Amino acid sequence: MSTNRKKSTAARRILAAGAGIATVGALVAALPAGAAQTSGGGGYGQGRYVDVQLLSFNDLHGNLEPPTGSSGRLTQLNPDGTTKTVEGVGGAEYLATHLRQARQGHPYSVTAAAGDMIGASPLVSGLFHDEPTVEALNKLKLDVSSVGNHEFDEGARELARMQNGGCHPVEGCFEEGKTFQGANFPYLAANVTDEKSGRPMLDPYFVWERDGVKIGFIGVTLEGTANIVSAEGIKGLKFGDEVETINKYAKILERKGVKSIVALLHEGGMPASGAYNYDCDTPGAGAGISGPIVDIAKNVTPQVDALVTGHTHQAYACTIPDPSGKPRTVTSAASFGRLYTDTTLTYDRRSKDIVRTAVASANHVVTRDVAPAKDMTDLIGRFKALAAPISNRPVGHISASIENPLPDPKDPAVGIERPLGNLIADAQLEGMAPADKGGAQLALMNPGGVRAPLTYAQSGGEGDGVVTYGEAYTVQPFTNMMTAVDLTGAQLITALQQQVSGANQAAPKILQVSKGFTYTLDLTKTGADRIVVDSVKLNGEAIDPSKTYRVAMNEFLAGGGDGFAVLKDHKNKLVGASDLDLFTAYLGAHSSATTPLAPPATDRITIVK
């Protein structure tokens, strides 16, 4: 490779990115003497400038097998402004191949994740407490990950086992002669501390180093994690402010001589378009994205050179200004292994820092037109064989796919009432309605607990329209215990208002409701006023604020999860079967091969927009 080619990668991108300098010549003059001639780009790592490839992804949620239905699709923005659906994306076998291909020709490559690698996982991973996913991430050569809220689904002790290894404390080892080895990569939890000692429960940061190039990673989960996981599993833990924590450890890393810093943050934003390749820097830096990540990014110290984010399951590669007004890369790779982000960080050996104007980033689709990685295929096959007797059992039949549409930034009405959410709420009401089961009159289901669609097309050899236990498990993987509780009509109305106010005002969480419970949501208004109070009815009769109602909900909601604080004030709780048991029982009772279940109508919430 010639000297001119050697300088092309890092130095040329520095030239191209000099938006505030009038000419290329001026920028060359502004560079340190000899910078272009000693670039480390293109695989030469001993010059002043070195291109470090940062590959990242987030919110895998144990999706080892290719996700199906809407979970296996992406929206692509065409040059003419139209969009098209990209079908058949994701799957650990293909993610592994794409990452391995992306690393080729990049001697300085680090792979990082922004949390929710495990939790809410399909059966092939969830049945084995996500040991298969951690083993898969080891094979993917993941270098570091922050924790997300779902890493706490089974509690802090189980998360520690994911890190350190060892067989499950109750179920033991899943494969004869094999002990779970734990994660080869560090899980970072800088803002998750012991309430008494104040010390992080896991490492707060990690320093990646190669040939003298050092990049520090600080990992945090969202401060509100305690509101969206089971309280029992996180007793004694405190979840701190994301900005304060990142800024604290950035100073510590600087004192240790690490000046290039990336924050791995399990919190995110909502781009104005759901297309994975939408330019969220239109018309200006970060102008096309909203949500919590915007304020966080604007307040995280300029010492941090890039933020890899997650949680919202959105795709973006934006440049949100830091507190000094300088653009800084902020990325997210959707969810379920459908995308990965490739970011080039140009490292200056002299300053030991990232040349911020040279940062380039883009999301790439994990297509299935590449050869699947054999080691990943073998791993999935091992656990599928162990799970098969349970996973392949038919539990019901459907006449068409029953979807779980997520919110659409372009249309606020999309994803409010979901066919699958209605089906699950109906199943919960039926299971908890008998007098000896709780006497429930209505059911409320948290939208985040519905994890995947029910797809009509067969996933194996079961036949189209057949719902297997494994597919039902993928929809309802938490196995939350169901409860029936007393709530007043006034509390019910407050719960509806809390969907769109308080903690949920910026990102509403619309409860899925059982048949017979109806109301109007007015999107032309703001906050609690969006709930038209006199429209709230049960079986056609207006809700009486002073009357007591029996309401079915899972333990997560009954504990005030997802910002529904009023639900904690229930009385006369009766605990029933798990949500998954009620779901599979309902499918079995209401469908057969000759009379499959049709998708329920979405006519319970009237939307004004």
TrEMBL record:
Residues annotated as signal peptide:
1-35
Against Gene3D superfamilies, the record matches this protein to:
3.60.21.10, 5'-Nucleotidase, C-terminal domain (3.90.780.10)
Protein name in the entry: Bifunctional metallophosphatase/5'-nucleotidase
Keyword Oxidoreductase (UniProt): no
What family is this?
Belongs to the 5'-nucleotidase family.
Organism from which the protein derives? Streptomyces solicathayae
**InterPro entries cross-referenced by the UniProt entry:** 5'-Nucleotdase_C, 5'-Nucleotdase_C_sf, 5_nucleotidase/apyrase, Calcineurin-like_PHP, Metallo-depent_PP-like
Task: Using the record's annotation, list all stretches that form the 5'-Nucleotidase C-terminal domain.
Answer: 415-568
Name the UniProt key words of this record, in alphabetical order: Hydrolase, Nucleotide-binding, Signal
| SUPFAM superfamilies in UniProt | 5'-nucleotidase (syn. UDP-sugar hydrolase), C-terminal domain, Metallo-dependent phosphatases
